[in-house]
Write a structure and sequence with these properties.
- It is a single chain.
- The protein is an alpha+beta fold.
- It has 2 domains: 51 residues; 104 residues, Head domain of nucleotide exchange factor GrpE (Nucleotide Exchange Factor Grpe, Chain A, domain 2, Roll), CATH 2.30.22.
- It is built from 6 helices and 6 strands, in the order H-H-H-H-H-E-E-E-E-E-E-H.
- The strands form 2 sheets. A 3-stranded antiparallel β-sheet has the order 1-4-5.
- Strand 4 and strand 5 form a beta hairpin.
- Helix 4 runs antiparallel to helix 5.
- The termini are far apart.
């Protein structure tokens, strides 16, 4: 019985100091492994380095600066566009006004050249005898002439008997008379004319002035 127990067991004589040394080696190895794991965790959980964060901030600042510059350029382009549109609209209005002016007053020079012809017809009628057979024909020609001028916007006006108006009348002479108040148009050499309400020729007139006092009345005073 004792012999069989000796065959199934193993007995080794190991010094106690060797066992203790082996245990310390295992503890040191376990501590180093734990320290390595903690260091790896610390490396993985540390925040990005300061250089990387500064680079991201610099990129953000640059992007914002470019955005502000682009916005400013867009505002400048918008302002230029508004000014260009306003200038174009003003040009269009000026061109329209000039076109209307040309249409309305383009015949002004021709009308001025024709007015003396109408004046001569008026003088011919004034000088003709009432029983002159040509008077009727001259009146017909004069009437047709005025109708043509009226279609072009030409109108004649008389100043006779009206107060003298330097804006519409041109005084050719002074007429001493007591029959009208001083400054009244008493003689009309030629009528005035307007083209679309614009004066193109003033009326040629003589204006009344107070007559001179007799010499005896002056001496009596």
């Amino acid at each position: 019985m004792s012999e069989s127990n000796q065959k199934g067991s193993f007995k080794a004589d190991i010094p106690s100091d060797a066992v203790e040394e082996a245990l310390r080696s295992v503890e040191r190895a376990s501590g180093a492994a734990a320290a390595g794991t903690d260091a790896a965790v610390e490396v993985e959980t540390d925040p990005p380095a300061g250089g990387e964060a500064g680079s991201l901030q610099a990129q953000l600042d640059l992007s914002q600066a470019l955005g502000r510059e682009t916005q400013k350029k867009l505002e400048e382009v918008h302002d230029r566009w508004d000014r260009a549109v306003a200038d174009l609209e003003n040009y269009r209005k000026r061109a329209q006004k000039e076109r209307e002016e040309v249409q309305k007053f383009g015949v002004e020079k021709l009308v001025k050249d024709l007015l003396p012809v109408l004046d001569n017809l008026d003088r011919a009628l004034s000088a003709a005898a009432a029983d002159d057979p040509l008077v009727a024909g001259v009146k017909l020609v004069r009437s047709s002439f005025e109708q043509v001028l009226a279609r072009q916007g030409v109108k004649g006006f008389s100043a006779l008997g009206q107060p003298f108006d330097p804006a519409r009348h041109e005084a050719l002479m002074q007429v001493p008379t007591a029959e009208a108040a001083p400054g009244t148009v008493v003689v009309e050499h030629a009528r005035g004319f307007t083209l679309h309400e614009r004066l193109i020729r003033p009326a040629m007139v003589g204006v009344s002035v107070a007559p001179p006092q007799p010499e005896d009345e002056v001496g009596g005073e």
